Amino acid sequence: MAAAVQFIVLKREGKWVLKANDQERFFSVQREAVDTAIRLANDSGKEGKPAAVLFQKSKSKFEKIWTYGEDPYPPARSDLPAMSGTPDPGKLADAVG
Fold first, then answer.
1. 77 and 89 Cβ atoms separated by less than 8 Å
2. Which of 25, 27, 71, 94 could form a disulfide with 32 if both were Cys (CB 3.0 to 4.6 A apart)?
């Protein structure tokens, strides 16, 4: 089985960063970074590339918050850790279909 693609959400210099495959995307709101990471991880999984979303809690500590094939998509807000900048509960579901 291929190694899972890791989509990592972290905070750097006051902005939220989504890192994956040597690329970075920047967000002003944490929830947007996490929602995008989960959407991209789901797309990756559909293409046959297993994927997981990790949240960087400290320099060396990560928490897995979503995995393709293990967690529902889109995830319920109650399934995700509490985060700052949480938009309306249906935003992720509305954004993906």
1. yes
2. 27
Taking 80 as the threshold, does the pLDDT of residue 67 lie above it? yes
Q: Give just the sign of the alpha carbon dihedral 55, 58, 59, 62.
A: negative
Q: Which residues in 18-45 are b (16+ Cβ under 10 Å) and which e? A: bbbeeeeeebeebbbbbbbbbbbbbebb
Q: Where are the domains of the chain?
A: 5-96
Kindly report the number of other CB atoms within 10 A of residue 11's CB atom: 14
SS3 95: helix
Identify the CA nearest to 8 among candidates 49, 58, 48. 58
Reduced to 3 states (helix: H, G, I; strand: E, B; else coil), residue 18 is strand
Sorting pLDDT into bands at 50, 70 and 90, what band is 95? very low
CB 92 within 8 A of CB 38: yes
Q: What is the mean pLDDT of residues 46-72?
A: 95
